[in-house]
Write a structure and sequence with these properties.
Elements: H1 8-19, H2 33-39, H3 52-63, H4 70-82, H5 89-97, H6 99-104, H7 110-124, H8 131-147, H9 162-175, H10 190-209, H11 219-229, H12 232-244, H13 258-274, H14 276-284, H15 290-298, H16 307-320, H17 322-341, H18 346-354, H19 358-361, H20 363-371, H21 377-397, E1 402-404, E2 411-413, E3 430-434, E4 438-444, E5 461-467
Helix pairs in contact: 7-10, 8-9, 9-10, 10-11, 10-12, 11-12, 13-14, 13-15, 13-21, 16-17, 16-20, 17-20
Protein name: Rab-GAP TBC domain-containing protein
Pfam families: RabGAP-TBC
Organism: Synaphobranchus kaupii
Length: about 475
């Protein structure tokens, strides 16, 4: 007998499972054709089917895996290019993220953390196995805590702070939005209840692992994908590796959103130099890169409608880290460029970027385009420098700012820059940045020379790449 819920959300979820025609090979609900467009989910997969020989070779590679070995990483890249068999994907991710070493070298205990979390949840009357009632209870508790001082607690009682309640509540809310058509999170079946409980535990444990960040929206999508391919504790350590290591997403999930906005501006510069015509068209329509790059990056492209493509993208991200995210973004824009250039309204362009069409995101289309799109680390470093330079110049042009004297702690005005000194002829500043595969020439347009030197003469830039000579 189905558990009945008084929540409208619960009724909708149960109805979705009831209307489902079954599930595809990745666990997503098959629905009637009239509902598929609303869900923006395709079930026509085109990824290459694994053969016995390839599976055997990959198993052998994983058995003697050494993350620091150049040979191992070259071989695993070859398998990723060909296509990772779904049954081995979780093991490949564990090897690339080196989660076993991370767990062994860390004093944090996942199981101990769950016990510590369960105590305040029990005191609140909340269970991860009843998310809908948990949301109602946490809402009520948060309102009570915000309305006045908390009643005194006995010394032996476990204290749950207002911050803890807010985190529990936000995680519980986001569980309802994370892949609501996947069998592990959909409806009120035993599998879905256990899946939601696992996701709740992984996210609350990470909030304890890194209290400075706690929980940010978007993490639930990443953790859910990890749980689809890994055991619960392995998924937790994989989440830690992704969110903590500089190679991947370190700093992107921050409440200030400074770093993710910075990376979106870096992508904006990369688009400017790689696709100047498309860049200018996007600029003319007033579409900001922040509006589509941030959702792409923060959910690791899980909004793509073809799940085999999502997993292939994740394979490359696990291998290359943040660099791969720039490659994926450029590949998508490369495929969308003809149709985007024909659009004359931002109301058409932005939805297309946020909900990439199925014909573009199919595995047989997107993945070859991804491997055909090269982005080097030195190139991202160069774009990063341009963003920092623009930020610096923007702050300089805002005028004198007040700062604090470290000795007297009194505000003081910043020293005003000397006035620009005009010269009889325009100056052109050229900078060569060397990289592994070539060099980047950044030539500034003629500008008035100022006492600030080349950094003060920043205007529109032009990027040229030439082969590196030895």
């Amino acid at each position: 007998m189905r558990r009945r819920s008084s929540s409208n959300s619960g009724k909708c979820t149960s109805r979705r499972r009831h209307d489902s025609l079954g599930f595809d090979e990745f666990g997503f609900a098959l629905s009637k054709k009239k509902d598929q467009k609303l869900q923006h989910r395709s079930h026509d997969y085109s990824y290459p089917q694994p053969n016995t020989v390839r599976v055997k070779e990959l198993c052998e590679l994983l058995s003697y895996w050494n993350g620091s070995s150049f040979i191992c990483r070259n071989q695993i890249e070859r398998f990723i290019r060909i296509g990772i068999p779904p049954a081995l994907r979780g093991q490949v991710w564990k090897c690339l993220l080196n989660t076993d070493t991370l767990r062994e070298n860390c004093s944090f205990s996942y199981q101990k953390c769950l016990k510590e979390i369960r105590e305040p949840l029990v005191d609140l009357g909340v269970s991860e196995y009843s998310i809908l009632s948990a949301i109602a209870t946490l809402n009520e508790t948060e309102n009570e805590m915000g309305s006045g001082p908390s009643p005194p607690q006995p010394p032996e009682a476990s204290v749950c702070s207002c911050g803890d309640v807010a985190i529990f509540r936000q995680i519980a809310l986001d569980l309802q939005r994370s892949f609501p058509t996947h069998r592990s999170l959909m409806g009120d079946s035993a599998e879905a209840i256990e899946g939601q409980a696992k996701l709740f535990r992984v996210l609350t444990a990470y909030a304890r692992y890194n209290p400075h960040i706690g929980y940010c929206q978007g993490m639930s999508y990443i953790a859910a994908v990890l749980l689809m391919n890994l055991t619960e504790e392995d998924a937790f350590w994989a989440l830690v590796a992704l969110l903590e290591r500089p190679k991947y997403l370190s700093g992107l999930f921050d409440h200030s959103m400074d770093k993710i906005q910075h990376q979106a501006r870096v992508f904006h510069q990369l688009l400017k130099h790689r696709k100047p015509l498309l860049y200018q068209h996007i600029e003319d329509l007033g579409v900001s890169s922040l509006h589509f790059v941030m959702p792409w990056f923060l959910t690791l492209f899980t909004s793509l409608p073809c799940w085999d493509s999502v997993l292939a993208v994740w394979d490359v991200i696990m291998l290359q880290g943040l660099l791969a995210m720039f490659r994926v973004g450029l590949a998508i824009l490369e495929l969308l460029e003809p149709r985007l250039l024909q659009m004359a309204d931002d109301g058409l362009m932005l939805p297309t970027l946020l909900r990439v069409p199925v014909e573009v995101s199919q595995h047989c289309v997107l993945v070859p385009a991804l491997w055909g799109t090269e982005v080097q680390e030195w190139e991202i470093d160069c774009m990063n420098g341009l963003v920092l330079e623009e930020t610096s110049v923007g702050q300089h042009q805002q005028g004198p700012e007040t700062s604090s004297n470290p000795l007297t702690n009194e505000p003081r005005k910043a020293r005003a820059s000397p006035p620009a000194r005009p010269v009889s002829h325009p100056s052109v500043w050229t900078l060569w940045l060397w990289g592994k595969a070539g060099r980047v020439k950044i030539s500034e347009k003629p500008a008035m020379r100022t006492s600030g030197g080349p950094s003060a003469c920043v205007s529109r830039t032009r990027l040229q790449i030439s082969p590196r000579s030895h």
